[in-house]
Amino acid sequence: MKRFEKFTMKTAALFLGVFAFGSTVLAQGNPTLSDAEVASAAVTANQIDIDFAAIAREKSKDTQVLEFARTMANDHQAVIDQAVALTEKLSVTPKDNAVSQQLKADAEKTKEQLRAKSGKAFDKAYIDNEVAYHTSVIAAVKDLLIPETENAELKDLLMSVVPALEAHLEHAKMIQQKMSKK
Amino acid sequence: MSMHKVLFPCALLLLTGFSTLQERPASKTHRVEIVQMKFSPSSLSVRPGDTVLFVNLDMVTHDVTEASGKSWKSPPLAAKGSWKKVAKTSASYYCSFHPVMKGTITVK
């Protein structure tokens, strides 16, 4: 029974993660993404976390939040640089699509919510969002973008990004835990 | 004092010194790769004076920071960057950018 509950929880989390990332495409009954669309979604997802980090660097005074935000900005920029270099090498132009648009729309709402907060409430909201966002993106990269990708090099790049996303998630959870003890 | 009385101890010293040097193993360089957000190997045993070479094979920047944060720290290592350190004492270390990444060097 416990195993079943664990499986159900995991499945639900996975579904929510993929759903949050690709709800529009799935709702259209056409989950197929071209490599150009996968590249666009990957770049957009990374850019969004850089944007979240920029807000944190503007609003937070907490050293560990600021250091985390700096790492997010640097790491996600490194991923974008790799993705852009690869698409140029493959002569693929990232193509805007329903997944990228949904990501941007959701991010705008989150940015608005973050900008409305300040002090410790902001720090908590930023880190909570980082935990939720990375959880969602990891599920989407593993279960939507990687299976949808045809080009082996693009697939390899996406697979090599997963450990970094997982390390970011664990780091965000560490900060979240420290904040809850304060 | 006759010449041989001086030369004999000197020769003996040179010989014993030479043999001691021969018995002591040469210091080695150990390679620790930083790959997929892990130090590999994460646990390393070395002899005093051995060199540990850290090589970043990830696309993101890492560093190598002694656990207390007070003893030693590498500069930021961009992709394909490397840094080496002569091991004198045992230490635990981590990446200050990604604190979930940890490793140890045991000096025996």
From TrEMBL, chain A:
Tagged with keyword Transferase: no
Lineage: superkingdom: Bacteria
InterPro entries reported for this sequence: DUF4142 (IPR025419), Ferritin-like (IPR012347)
DUF4142 domain residues: 34-174
Signal peptide feature range: 1-27
Keywords: Signal
One family name in Pfam for this protein: DUF4142
Gene3D superfamilies, A to Z: 1.20.1260.10
PANTHER family linked to this entry: BLR2558 PROTEIN (PTHR38593:SF1)
UniProt protein name: DUF4142 domain-containing protein
